[in-house]
Design brief:
The protein is of the alpha/beta class. It contains eight helices and eleven strands. The protein folds into two domains: 118 residues, Rossmann fold (3-Layer(aba) Sandwich); 89 residues, Orthogonal Bundle (Arc Repressor Mutant, subunit A). Helices cover 41% and strands 20% of the residues. It has a five-stranded parallel beta sheet with strand order 2-1-3-4-5, sandwiched between helices. Strands 6-7-8-9 form a four-stranded antiparallel beta sheet, with helices on one face. Strand 10 and strand 11 form a beta hairpin. The structure holds calcium ion (CA).
């Protein structure tokens, strides 16, 4: 899952960037509204974490601009403590949720999971597919009730494919979800991850659609 973090405070931004990556999110961190707007044009993010107090273009203006363009990206705003007006204005401008600073990373992650799940129309936190259960909150995947140990990226890849069950995702789309700006991506990285997943979960789980991408077919 790919997040856009918009925060001009270096200390908080660094902490969130590191913490969220540790929680298996791919994260791009930008420090102003202008860069945020161009990043959104280029990358299909799953959620944006948006500080309201930004230099030049404020978080609120970023939010208003993307909503006026009909962009449906889930947005969680970060507001200064006790700034009730910021929260109200932010929600009215199209934010999906907010957190007042200071907050715990755990709470942010829980809210992100809920937001992303809702945006995908996924009713439950855990994703169940045949004999496989994937729990994004616990970072656990089981097959026939036995925990399967897979790498961070393999987990992210499996989650993307399961969440998009029935749809074909191209290699470029999957790379977008699994890597941040600046990550070195081997040209066959996705193929290698798919190969490992097939070894763990059977060769029939993930189908290759030649020239298009990969899919987990509907049950
Ligand atoms: Ca700020």
């Amino acid at each position: 899952m790919r997040l856009l973090l918009v925060e001009d405070d270096s200390l908080l931004g660094e902490g969130l960037f590191t913490g969220l990556r540790h929680e298996n999110y791919s994260v791009d961190w930008v420090k102003n509204g202008e860069t945020a707007l161009s990043a959104i044009r280029e990358t299909a993010y799953d959620c944006m974490i948006l500080d309201i107090g930004l230099p030049k273009i404020s978080g609120l203006d970023v939010l208003k601009q993307i909503r006026s363009q009909g962009i449906v990206l889930p947005v969680l705003i970060l507001t200064a403590q006790d700034e009730l007006s910021d929260r109200v204005v932010g929600l009215d401008a199209g934010a999906d949720d907010y957190l007042a600073k200071p907050f715990e990373l755990d709470e942010l992650c829980a809210r992100l999971r809920a937001l992303i799940r809702r945006s995908r129309g996924q009713p439950e936190q855990r994703i169940t597919y045949k004999n496989i259960i994937l729990d994004p909150a616990a970072h656990i995947v089981t097959r026939d009730d036995e925990i399967v140990s897979i790498s961070r990226r393999e987990f992210a890849l499996l989650e993307e494919l399961l969440a998009s069950c029935g749809r074909v995702l191209s290699r470029a789309q999957l790379e977008d979800k699994l890597y941040n700006w600046g990550d070195e991506i081997e040209s066959n990285a996705i193929e290698v991850h798919i190969h490992h997943l097939r070894k763990r979960f059977g060769s029939n789980l993930i189908k290759t659609i030649r020239g298009v991408g990969y899919t987990i077919p509907k049950q």
